[in-house]
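As a next step, we paired sequence with C-alpha cells, yielding the entry below.
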Amino acid sequence: MNDILALTDPVDLSPTQRAPHLAYIYMGEVYNGGHGQYFSNHEHLDHQEVIRALEIIGAREQADILKGALRRFTANQADEMSEPDKLFYECKTNIEFHLEAYLDEHESEFVEWIP
C-alpha cells in the first residue's frame, strides 16, 4: 500500500485508491513540516478533494483540521499554522489507523494475492 500511495501517479489510481493517496500525501507533509509545508508543496492540489478523501477514509477529525487550515491559508495567514498543527497531533486516532482500516475494507484494490 505504501508504494501505491506514495509512488503512483494519481492519474493511474482508481477512485478507491485515490482517496487514501491524497490522505497519505497530506499526512506525510504535516508530519514532516506541518500544514505550512503541506500547502507550500501542494498548493496545486484541490484541497476540497483532500478534505473529502480524509472523510472517505474515516479521518473526519483531520478533515475538519484541514478545513480550518485551508481557511487560514486562503486568508493569507499561512504563517499562522501552529494551531492546526497542534490539533493534528492531538487527534484521538491518527491517519495511519484510518488508512489501515480502509485497506482492510478495500484490500483487493491494493493487494494482489497470488496462489
